[in-house]
Amino acid sequence: MKFAVVVFPGSNCDVDMFHAIQDELGEEAVFVPHSEYDLSSFDAILLPGGFSYGDYLRSGAIARFAPIMKAVQEAADEGKPVLGVCNGFQILLESGLLPGAMKQNRDVKFMCRNVKLRVENNKTMFTNQYESGESIVIPIAHGDGNYECDDTTWEEMIKNNQIVFRYDGHNPNGSKDDIAGIMNKRGNVLGMMPHPERAVDSLLGSKDGIRLFQSILILWRENHVVTS
Ligand SMILES: NC(=O)CC[C@H](N)C(=O)O
Q1: How far is the CA of 71 from the centre of ligand 1 (A)?
Q2: Is 190 helix (H, G, I), strand (E, B) or coil?
Q3: CATH code 3.60.21.70 for 2-224
Q4: Candidate from 14, 17, 51 with most ligand 1 atoms within 8 A of CB, to mutate
Q5: Ligand 1 binding residues, C-beta < 6 A
Q6: Where does the protein principally reside (predicted)?
Q7: I need a labelling partner for 145 at 20 to 30 A (CA). Which of 59, 84, 154, 207 fits?
Q8: What ipTM was predicted for this assembly?
């Protein structure tokens, strides 16, 4: 399976994402610069974390205008898996691929630590290797992780099971309804603030993140690889 790791000026988790795919998952990862227009040769698109364009205006607000975002939109429209982590999630929100917006953390501080997440929906292309309601440990590292949306959007997301992860126990940033990760209605675009690519080996303190990438791969193989 071939994964695109999109790199914006200011991305800083692109190498971690590449490592997670290439070295831990054992699949092909390719860095794709923000200035490209074509993602048609890829099976999945990953928007890594960081400070794209220095977080000027708002996190992700400038990146949404990068040439590559048209190709990300096309990939999403085709039903390919699109995963945005942290700044990648912020970019997906700013570009309208996911509903809602991100505000500054409740305590107006950048936070970098392991957090517990609850897997709210394990019937997705990103979470099928987790148990429903499972508590997992994944690190966060952000200043703007306080997810917000209007009540109509929130009710719609509840109805469609679009809330994929919630903070388990302590909510670190004040996000609405403890939301840590959401997907689109179709189920092929996931945005999450915690960093699964930084939890792929016990040496890193947790390997709970690797199953997210395995989920994408296993489902993709079921749909694309003929075994007999
Ligand atoms: N690690 C990241 O992706 C940081 C996200 C973002 N720029 C913030 O601080 O909110």
Answers
A1: 23
A2: strand
A3: no
A4: 51
A5: 13, 49-51, 55, 59, 86-87, 110, 141-145
A6: cytoplasm
A7: 207
A8: 0.95
